[in-house]
Design brief:
Layout lengths: L4 E6 L3 H9 L2 H9 L5 H21 L5 E6 L12 E6 L2 H8 L6 E5 L18 H9 L5 E11 L4 E4 L2 E5 L6 E5 L2 E5 L2 E4 L7 H7 L15 E5 L14 E4 L5 E5 L3 E5 L6 E4 L4 E14 L1
Parallel strand pairs: 1-2, 1-3, 3-4, 4-16
Antiparallel strand pairs: 5-6, 5-16, 7-10, 7-14, 8-9, 8-13, 10-11, 11-12, 13-16, 14-15
Length: 290
């Protein structure tokens, strides 16, 4: 029997990024001070992250395998069926790892309780060891979060937890046919209940009449066309709606487009002229330990 593997997922801290750019702590401190900022809060957040990572590492049960990966390296890591993922950071980090999983449970750890919404990172580092043990014996409470999926006509597919964006790579005018209507817009957004408090919510607030946004555990999706342009050749009658499980939103590209999810633009699908895309509720769910 293969021992479980705890996979720690985290992002580089602001301090790490500053040191990469400015080489030394002194230069980083001067850069911030010249702009009216103090390095100490940055240092405090760095210390909180690394203390949380230390506590999680210490709580991994004996005999378990372990791995650690930064967010930028997620596309290069192969997740195994027996993995248990521990995401240490903000809620968005759980969304970033979700697309690479297929049922593996995720424990969200908040290194700075009270500063993050804590929708997906609900736990402190101190209880992570107990939660890892509960997962392996089937005593952890799991919440199944709906995901959204785009499938190209050549078989390529991409999943996301919050939302998928389909549009121009430079966020300029995207040209396509949506449900048969030719459109030119700033792109299409299709979101889940988890994503309904984010990008989709901001689009919904700008419209007089909108479809009801799905709840956190609903199986439905909401979709919006951003800034559809009316012209003699492009229409604006199909700009928003809902998708129940089993429904499909069909799109045919009439220019080179991209599809990416949850803000990870570097990990995306390239869509060529004439290709067909179907957006729908994914068959896989994200398993979040609550």
């Amino acid at each position: 029997m293969i021992a479980p593997r705890a996979v720690l997922v985290h992002r580089r801290s602001e301090l790490d990024l500053l040191l990469e750019r400015h080489s030394t702590r002194g230069q980083a401190e001067f850069f911030l001070r010249s702009r009216g900022r103090d390095l100490q809060p940055v240092q405090d957040r760095h210390d909180a992250l690394h203390e949380a990572l230390r506590q999680v590492e210490a709580g991994i049960p004996g005999g378990w395998r372990r791995a650690s990966v930064e967010r930028a390296d997620l596309p290069r890591l192969r997740f195994d069926p027996e993995d248990v993922v521990v995401a240490v950071g903000q809620d968005g980090l759980v969304a970033n790892v979700a697309k690479y999983l297929d049922g593996q449970p995720v424990i969200g750890v908040d290194p700075e309780p009270g500063l993050n919404p804590g929708v997906l990172v609900r736990h402190s580092a101190a209880v992570s060891g107990d939660l890892l043990g509960r997962v392996t014996v089937g005593r952890a409470r799991i919440e199944q979060r709906t995901m959204v999926e785009a499938v190209l006509d050549d078989g390529q597919r991409l999943r996301a937890l919050n939302e998928l964006y389909l549009g121009d790579a430079g966020h300029q005018s995207a040209r396509y046919r949506l449900r048969g209507e030719r459109q030119s817009s700033s792109g299409i957004l299709v979101g889940t209940g988890t994503g309904s408090t984010g990008w989709c919510a901001s689009l919904a607030r700008d419209r007089a009449q909108v479809p009801e946004l799905p709840g956190p555990l609903d199986e439905s999706l909401a979709w919006f066309v951003r800034e559809a342009w009316p012209s003699p050749f492009t229409g604006t009658t199909q700009t928003q709606g809902s998708l129940a499980r089993g429904d499909v939103l069909p799109v045919v590209a009439e220019a080179d487009l991209v599809v990416f999810g949850d803000g990870l633009e570097s990990d995306r699908l390239q869509v060529g002229w004439g290709q067909q895309i179907e957006v729908r509720t994914a068959s896989q769910h994200l398993s979040v330990v609550v």
